[in-house]
Structure formats: C-alpha cells, structure tokens
Amino acid sequence: MPPRRTTMHYPTNEVLEQDQFLAIMDVYEHHWLLEHTHDFPEMICVLSGNGTQYINGSAIAAKEGEVYLIPIGTTHVFRPPANAATSASLQVRNVIFRAEWLDELTSIIMDTEVKELIFWLLGQPGSALQGKPPWLKIADTQSEFRLLTERMKSLVGQRLPLSQTRLTARVIDLLSLLCTATDNGRQQYSEWPPKLEMHPVKAEILSAIQAMPLSVVSLKEIAQKINWSERHLSRVFQQHFEIPFKSYMQNYRLQEGMKLLVESTLTVKEIMSHIGFEDTNHFYELFRRATGTTPGQYRRRERNGSLN
C-alpha cells in the first residue's frame, strides 16, 4: 500500500486581494512546502534552476524554460534538488487567476477553443474536459511565455488609466497562445514554437544570433555571417519572425539582462555592456517600459521580495 501523502489547500483569498483578478509572483521553491490544491487555476513558469514537480503524486523533472498549467483540483508542488547548495536554486513564476473572473471572461471570448481551455482550467464538467489531460507542460524554447508574463507582471497592481483593460487583453493573448501551443489543451507535453515547424531559414538566423556574444549582434553582423545583404535579411526576418529585427533583439537583450540582474553579481553597467546596450538612458527607458521598474529596483524585488 503506497504511503499516504500529506497535502494542504489554498483558498483564493490567501493569494488574491478582493479587487484582484490576477496575481503574478516570482518565488524560490523550498523543501518544506507541502503538495497542495487551490481554488484557482495556475500557470507556472520555471525561471531558473531545476528540480522536481510533483503532480497528483507523480514526479516530473522540471527545469528552466518550462511552463506548467495546473487546473483547479490538481495537487502539485515544486521541490529543488535534494543536494541544492542554496535556497535560491529553483525559481518559478506563479500566474494565478481568479476563477470567477475567468468564468465571466468566457462571455466575451468568441473562440470556442479558448472557452473550452478556460472550462478545463476551472475543472468544470462537460465536453470541455473530454480528451484533455489533467495538466499541461510546455517547453518555452524562445521565452515567449516568460516575456508575455513579464509584461503582464508590470501591469499587475498598477492604478494607471486603462491598466486593467490592458492586463485583461494580455490574459486573453496568453490563453490564445496556450491553446495554440498545446493543440487546444489536448497535448500534454509540447514545445513552443514546435521544432518541426521552424523554417530552415528561421533556424539559420536564430543559430547565427545565438552563436555570437550579445554585445556584438547586429543586423550587419548577422547578414555577413550568413552571406546576405542587410536589406534582404531585414525583409526575411520580418517575414519569419513577424517582428522587426531591432524589436526582436531589444526583447532578447532585455530578457537576458533580467536574468543577469537576478543571477549574477555584475553591475548594471557591466550587464548593459554584456547584452549590447551603450546608451544608459535608452536602456533604462526600455527596461522600465518592459517591467515597470528600474534595473536596480527589479534586482532588489526579485532577489529579496521573492524570498519573503
């Protein structure tokens, strides 16, 4: 007879304030946390490190760059490696949705696929549950989910005009992306974007970018590396990535900068040099636009606030 598991339950009011429909928290996982259920659905991004995710009593290896979707009624817990040197060896981002708000959201969503994903997240009986696994895991190979939740996090708690509407729009974007990445919730293990669907031209460009230090990556350098003209590369890049080269690299550099702020002891100036920013004012402007904070505030928040 298998040993009985000790679990606990988190009600919504322990994690969401009365007027909140969404909470996003970056936390470090610890061994003392019990396997648990909650009254709300949750999406979890593994930000750094590796460990084990226990879901409904089964152990699943977890590592940086993975995304988990946990519906209401599913027990789970993350655990860092048993031999972890520090308590900061496994960091995750918890995206918590108020169940009643998600249910109301279905009244304005037109696509049946997104509605059914919401019904599945809420654990509602009916056709939405048929053929869907009890939880989902996505390999976020290009950090699309991480970047989207980073932008969402910058809006949570803001009292600026239209911030709640903008946050709602990004939640809908997130749900749509989840549907696309998981075949409308039917594919338990998936990778986004799928490797098999990546065009060889896109793969060649990505390979060229990743082979260079970020400090030297430019349209000119990439064009020389793959023997194209800058004009041709710019046009082809827009075609395959659906975003201009400059915008893509800004997001890429900012994401790497966020990681270095949390995981390294480099100064902000050293990080700027490492990721290819020379203009301090421009870097701070882009960083604040993406996160709602300065680099220094972001470092303190992620290192100290996430441990509380």
Write a brief structural summary.
This protein has helices at residues 99-105, 112-121, 144-155, 163-181, 200-210, 219-225, 230-241, 245-263, 268-275, 280-291, 295-304; strands spanning 7-10, 22-28, 35-38, 42-55, 58-63, 66-70, 76-79, 90-97, 136-140, 189-192. It has 308 residues and is of the alpha+beta class.
Query: Secondary-structure element sequence?
Result: EEEEEEEEHHEHHEHHHHHHH
Envelope shape = globular
Number of helices: 11
Q: Using DSSP, what is the number of strands?
A: 10
Mean pLDDT: 88
What portion of the residues fall into strands of 2 or more residues? 15-25%
Spatial separation of the terminal alpha carbons: 38 Å
Rg of Cα set: 20 Å
* Largest sheet properties: 8 strands, mixed
Protein structure class: alpha+beta
Residue ranges: pLDDT <50 for 5 or more in a row?
none
Helix proportion of residues, in percent? 40-55%
Structural description of this entry:
Helix content is 41%, strand content 20%. With 308 residues, the protein is an alpha+beta fold. The strands form two sheets. Strands 2, 4, 5, 6, 7, 8, 9 and 10 form an eight-stranded mixed beta sheet that branches. Strands 1-3 form a two-stranded parallel sheet. Strand 4 and strand 5 (58-63) form a beta hairpin. The model has no long low-confidence stretch (mean pLDDT 88). InterPro entries: AraC-bd, Homeodomain-like_sf, HTH_AraC, RmlC-like_jellyroll, RmlC_Cupin_sf, Tscrpt_reg_AraC-type_HTH.
